[in-house]
């Protein structure tokens, strides 16, 4: 039997994929067992439970599972790096069931420095799904810690982390901007207004415009229930403004989203205010990336096309 | 008997000044009775307790005491505005002791819009202490919500609020940047490194560099106990970078600090990285400003110099 069990294992959740011998996803399971919420029995118990009933197959994990607070720390791999470099740098540990778990290293951009864990598998998978973008492209992986990534000749050449998601949650939950506001029905106009405010902040930047989320409300020109959407627009817009200023994306180079559909939809809307049109995001990129890494590591073998199509 | 009781009444604290007939401070009392921590009996009880034993004198308050959640809401006064305009716009209420409490309006910059309450009294006081700066100058009032203010011909002509202090506290207490870090002994080098990182972020801005507070630590080039100082430098440096980009300060125009000595010292150190040399801050500016406003409102009368000097 050929195939792979791929694990996208982060801080707040665990996603397990069962891939067949051609790298197609046969089943996906999602559990809230991130590093911070492991079940009793820890990593071993979580792995055993999430793969219950699945055949014995090579297991490859990516994400914070390989961090200092994870199952075993795997050193970061320095840029530039692509599927081959990452695949050849897998680490491994022996689980309680006596079988190996391979773990992908994270990537480190020495310029900055900056680091990622898990996104590298998504990027590898995305590039296998969109080989035309391997030459020169930029990528956005929105989230708690959004990544903006540049790719050249199939390798990651640079990236930067923006704390957009975490900052939004902090400001909404704990700051004066969130006081008295509730995230009610979505307000696309307030979101767009935030994006445009960030864009038009120019070189001063949106950090200097944060307080506007309060003053516009005090001024009566922004409804309190629209503050969360305005704030979201301000922070997402700042990602685009800063990334363009930093050269992480260029208007004449392909830019592609990877990630959750709803979150990526916000980014697509924000992009229009920068005259950038984005395609719908690539999904399950991590599963495809884990397959590619397993191929390079020799854990699986691509079935010949004529057999795979039987 | 001539004189004034000045009250600088904010969200977290109350400062009461007893001024003599020439506007000199005779006594200052500081209580933790801001709007959020009023003693039993509320504003009336706080006023009665903080002025205990003082003679009956006109009472003038500034700050959040005049906000929607304060003792009585006073409408904002639109810019441009100086001592005369603010002094002529005082509101008042009758306290439980049957005597008036006058309350200064806050200022509103229609461009933005942006608002302040309390800082306007500090600015009026600071301009009376430094009349040479009344022509053209910029001012920094550091704090939870820092203000950068432009003054022309004795009037406030524009300002912007930066949430530096609040953001620092949020990130330190609740974000991944604060995880595992402690604010130990002060580290001026880490502070300077943060300032320089913000300065050199250029048009991209320091919001895009926030995550460096974590990656430098993971990289082993920033000690975890130095993260708070680095983060502080990053945010204070961003104030200077953004304010210069926004035209709120110019290298060829006087720039003056008002506020707490220790906090202002951080700003003086940050300024050196932007080739700006700042004088020590002006203190008790609010008390002097309340006196000036009371003069314009006719609540007190400046004693003739020869009598005052008796």
Automatic annotation (TrEMBL), chains A, B:
Pfam families according to UniProt: DGOK (PF05035)
Alphabetized Gene3D superfamilies for the sequence: 2-keto-3-deoxy-galactonokinase, C-terminal domain, 2-keto-3-deoxy-galactonokinase, substrate binding domain
CDD domains: ASKHA_NBD_KDGal-kinase
GO molecular function, one term: 2-dehydro-3-deoxygalactonokinase activity
GO biological-process terms attached to the record: D-galactonate catabolic process
Sorted UniProt keywords: Kinase, Transferase
Superkingdom of origin organism: Bacteria
Protein name listed in UniProt: 2-keto-3-deoxygalactonate kinase
The organism of origin for this protein: Rhodanobacter glycinis
Phylogenetic lineage: Bacteria, Pseudomonadati, Pseudomonadota, Gammaproteobacteria, Lysobacterales
């Amino acid at each position: 039997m050929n195939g792979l069990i791929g694990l996208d294992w982060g801080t707040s959740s665990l996603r397990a994929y069962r891939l067949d011998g051609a790298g197609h996803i046969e089943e996906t399971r999602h559990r809230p067992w991130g590093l911070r919420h492991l079940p009793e029995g820890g990593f071993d118990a979580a792995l055993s439970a999430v793969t219950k009933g699945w055949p014995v197959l090579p297991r490859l994990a990516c994400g914070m599972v390989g961090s200092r607070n994870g199952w075993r720390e795997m050193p970061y791999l320095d840029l530039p790096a692509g599927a081959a470099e990452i695949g050849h740098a897998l680490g491994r540990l022996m689980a309680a069931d006596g079988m190996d778990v391979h773990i992908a290293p994270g990537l480190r951009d020495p310029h900055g420095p900056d680091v990622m864990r898990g996104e590298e598998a998504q990027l590898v998978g995305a590039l296998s799904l969109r080989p035309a973008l391997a030459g020169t492209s930029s990528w956005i992986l929105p989230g708690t810690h959004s990544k903006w990534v540049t790719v050249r000749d199939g390798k990651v050449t640079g990236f930067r982390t923006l704390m957009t998601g975490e900052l939004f949650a902090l400001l909404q939950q704990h700051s004066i901007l969130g006081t008295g506001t509730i995230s009610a029905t979505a307000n696309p106009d307030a979101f767009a207004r935030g994006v445009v405010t960030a864009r038009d902040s120019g070189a001063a930047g949106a950090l200097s415009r944060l307080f506007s989320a309060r003053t516009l409300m005090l001024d009566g020109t922004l409804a309190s229930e629209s503050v969360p959407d305005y704030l979201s627009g301000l922070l997402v817009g700042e990602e685009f403004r800063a990334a363009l200023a930093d050269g992480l994306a260029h208007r004449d180079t392909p830019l592609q989203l990877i990630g959750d559909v709803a979150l990526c939809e916000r980014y697509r809307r924000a992009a229009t205010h920068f005259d950038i049109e984005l395609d719908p995001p690539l999904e399950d990129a991590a599963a495809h990336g884990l397959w590619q890494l397993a191929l390079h590591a020799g854990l699986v073998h691509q079935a010949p096309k004529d057999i795979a199509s039987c």
